[in-house]
Amino acid sequence: MSQHRLLLLLSAATALVRAQVTPMDVVFAGLSARTSQLAYQQRGGDMKPIAPLMAEASNTDKTLAYRGLTHALALMSGRAWTPDLELATALDFSVNAKAVGTGEYLATRATFLFDAPAAALPPYRLQLDLLKADGSKETTVEPGIVLGDVRGRRGGETIGLTFDPSKIAQPGLHTLRATLQDGHATTIFEYYRSIFIVTDLSKRAEAAMKTLELLPNQASEAALAARQILETIMLAHRTYYGTGFQNLAGYVYAGMRAVGLGTTEPMDFDAALTHAALLTAALKEGQDPLSNARGDVTMAYRSGFDGKLVPYRIYLPKNYDKSKKYPLVVLLHGAGGDETNFLEAYGRLWPKLAEERGYILASVNGRGPLSGYRKENGGEQDVLDVLDLMKSHYSVDASRVYLGGHSMGGGGTWTIGLKYPERFAGLIPIAGSSALVVPGLEAELKSGRKIPVMMVCGVKDALVAVAGCRTVAEKAKALNAPIKYAEYAEGDHLSVAVMSIPDIFDWLDAQGKAGMSAGSH
Questions:
Q1: In this structure, which of 33, 75, 353, 357 has its CB flanked by the most CB atoms within 10 Å?
Q2: How far is CA 219 from each of CA 49, 179, 259, rounded to the nearest angstrom?
Q3: What mean pLDDT is reported for the chain?
Q4: What is the pTM of this model?
């Protein structure tokens, strides 16, 4: 096959596809807009043109809701609303897979989420560049996606380019940057998607899965962990499997990425494939490869709720000793996240301090990025199941089991912690408290059980207002509840979750000392 055939330009024939605006796109466009609104108002921004656009968040037509919210985001960024900028919000840039084997093709496409602006002046193109892991440019993918004259393009139309990444880049993690340009090569907007090039991906995955399928014990911890890894790799091979924010439409994801969200990958697919192969090989030889695992460990279990294979992550101190008892912190991610967050995000402070201070961590999947940890979708049961698994498989001090979470996970901490207070020695809701928790807190206190709580809030949080946190703290104080209220003057919805971690571990240590003191009398 000639070099020219390696790049198959599909712009000569466009096809209608399903518009890609999803409920999740609308949710996070709304969250981004509300976060931007606080800073915009503090700068003295005029809300008259913004307010009706923000109101579109409640529109039942998700495409109209997304269109209004991205318009508001663009205006609040200080940019003039032009046909070019409208085109940037109308376009999505996507790829068909997260993991691509050497010698395999990757399909990229530009999709019109809604009709292109009639006033857009041609021509336009998306320049495609592959970036290295450090963000530096590695190579350009020629000829890019030629959009040409977009006037008349309707929502759902797509234009694409297919190429073999392994012909122009080395195996490993790469970011594919798509730069929207006008006819003068002026940059209008930049979209991003990340991919992994994996040597002999299909061959290696199939070999590991074949070994796994022949094992006599399919239900062992190591077999389930290997299966979950392999199934995730296969999913990433046929779809764009990303954690939380990575799956958002291009304009909103670019904004998330600019503030450091959605940059954590689901896994290093090459290393994970090697790990799965080692797990299956050890199991084939009758060994238990997880018996001496320490540090960050990827786990999975088969849920009794619906039979699904559910992943979770744990952290065991490197000097973990089965003859000793360890405090356990069960952690619930926020909206858009998953079980990887507390081990890989937040400056990696959770595993660092857990190692230094001797804690076991369990980071829960919670049935997806927007489950709310509700009973009806299995999110609540996931938390309880992981807790039970940790207590049955590891040397956990049953009197020192804590539940914590950020944002949506903070709300889940309140809900599950107050519903099952006998299971936890303390709660740590981070940027997830509002006056809505007061009735549950009152009911818990009236029952006679006073569960200790460290409530973390940021004054600059635009999503979970500090006023609601203060209301809860004041009510708790009036009821003589054992709540430590930690308010951070410079903390916003994201930064407060990082700056509070050392204080959280100080509080956890103090709970342990209080327990030992009480037990000595």
A1: 33
A2: 58, 47, 41
A3: 91
A4: 0.89
